[in-house]
Protein 1
Amino acid sequence: MAQLLLIEDDAHMIRVLSMWLTRNGHEVVEVGDGMSGQEAIEERSFDLVVSDVNMPRMNGIQFVEWLRVEKKSNVPVIMLSSRSDQANIDERLGELGINIYPKPFSPSRLVEAIETRLEEAATVKGDSALGG
């Protein structure tokens, strides 16, 4: 079971994603914006973060920049976006090693992507432990 942080300001999206992720055996902590995401990261560690791009107080890109630069964390992040300037977002997030999924999306496909990222992260951790 992975510990997942879900940062999303849309209540319906939170319900749907949280249901799919818990149904697949994950523990999900839900917060409504990037600042609340920062607080959650300060309180505990997570195996993966799923975040919306557009949110009040602190958007998803600002959150990821904080996570990578200030926290120096390489926790896997998957971003969700319905923005029309997708190419600009893809470029900025690509530099930070972030996958982005445009809305609307299939919840089952997103869960598959999350499982893949968790497996990749576990492999990297295993390689690091072996000195690789």
Protein 2
Amino acid sequence: MSDYLAMLNWTSGDGNFLAKQYSRTHEWHFDGGAVVAASASPHIVPTPRSSPENVDPEEAFVASLASCHMLFFLSIAASKNFVVQSYSDSASGKMEKKPTRQLCNQKVFLRPVVKFAKGTLASEAAVMEIHRLAHDKCFIANSVTAEILIEPVI
């Protein structure tokens, strides 16, 4: 099938590594040339050893689920002749402890707002069905055990 590549670069900086006083900021490099400033979440590693301005892995996880869902939603809507004018999502992840006491994103909430072009008649039932199909097809959602709750704003 397909292979996906992401390169990660980190250097220790000036902090005392053994005392865990090193920077958690790093970069993600993608095959198309995009470089993303990344960091540990400031909810987990306090600043200045993390950078709130950078993307953290937990945010990237939520964003990848929202993005994958949106891309399938748009494709399915187009195949059903529904013209989408805009799509936004205020997605969030909920970090919780599993019974094994490990932290994980156990729930991800997708809250898409879809605006259709004037003259496009998409019933609430049709929109909900497109969301269901998009969720079923999303590669990222199919790759994780987190519960993904889709709460569209209609």
Protein 3
Amino acid sequence: MTGFDRHEQALDALAGRSRLRRLIPRAGHDFASNDYLGLAGSAFLRDAARAALDRGVSLGAGGSRLLRGNDAEHEALEAEAATFFGAERALFMGGGFQANQALFSTLPMQGDLVLYDDLIHASAHEGLRLGRADQRAYPHNDATAAEGAVRDWRAQGGKGRIWIAVESLYSMEGDTAPLADLATLAAAEDAVLVVDEAHATGLHGPLGRGLTGGMNHANLLTLHTCGKGLGVSGALICGAAPLIDTLINKARPFIFATAPSPLNAALVRAALTDLKTNPARRESALALIAHAHGELARHGLCTFTTPILPVLTGTEARAMQLATRMQQRGYDIRGVRPPTVPRGTSRLRISITGNVTPALITDMADALAEELAKVPA
């Protein structure tokens, strides 16, 4: 008896449904991370870290940005990121979860409406839970339904500003949002289009600016995480100056958090510079992705055109059994189960990173087809 019987019973219930999560060490070839450009362990970023340390960049911030934690590296990164992503201002935060929590809990005001895709990330939901605006979901990637939801809300007396919240590239589905249609809706309603570019930044769009890169929309607010394609950590919220200043003044996840490491800010700056000056890295990553889609299509597996390739397995147990078998064969592929994905849609989430080769991708696809045939649905 530990005195935590209810917790143990809850964990046992998760295990009985094949939903118990465990931390496992890295092993095998990387088909699981979000390191789409292979920057995380690159010699390029190691050299950038040495150079930053040599010029005296601090490892720690020592406090929140509003105390003594505001460093010249933070401000330089924000200026460069605003220019790179085509925004008036940018704000650097510790991570994407923290940034989404800050954004949705702070910016939409009482009387506003946040209209969101029903597969948007958990971090956005956490921010919405803390916010004061009305909230309505619409079916995944259905811009027509989104327009209908706006019309219904207005008909019911809604008069505030509308915030349309989507991911440009969905982290578990591997598909992309109908951004052009949503931008048209946003323009018609003078709405803010909030786009989480987490899985597109660094890889998609001109110079890796994301799928909103070059989009001409006056009320565009974007989130670019730095721990995926950019290979480091943190997140950049990019948008109009009044919104960034509101976050600085009112967002509790910003105000009461120790600032990100100045060294980390310096490395994000280096990653952005690499995007501008080394197109070969993106071209190589996109070629790997195209090869992977061709190899999975050869085995009859449906894919999109992004680095995320979901293979639906049906049950939680089958997802985890297949993941274990692929790991035993040397391919680090993870199973994803509810509540991360909707019930009945457990899957293998295969990601194509800059840490594999075309030959490894071909071998992985062949092995996956063999294992799918061995483990019945």
Protein 4
Amino acid sequence: MFNDMLDIRQKQLGLGIKSRPVEIGYEVRCITPHAYDLVYCTELGMGVYKLFKQGITGCMVYLDLNGNIKSLYLKDMQDPKTGKIPPRGVNIHQDKVNMIFEYIMHYITPSDYEAAKKYVPDPEKYDFKKILNW
């Protein structure tokens, strides 16, 4: 229903864009939403409103390392020579990131290997920290 409303509005605005709803966040991460997601999404939503009120559009919204709302344009992320957007890393040594990995995320650890053999032959291959060489 929302997608239909969006298509109608885009046509009214004369935009030649076709969209479709896709939910990927939790499926990609293979975890259920938690409090961090609620807070982060709320901050991003408020950021959209703040930037819109300032007349800033056509961009993505992000929070900088100090928690300030910023605009980000794809053109600013592109490599000037190739036009491609290079991957961006995450500082895995930040307290916030470590707290998520240690206390919120669920993944196979050595203590799970024996029980996990019921589902996969070599659970160690699926150990999150071993995959990332942590």
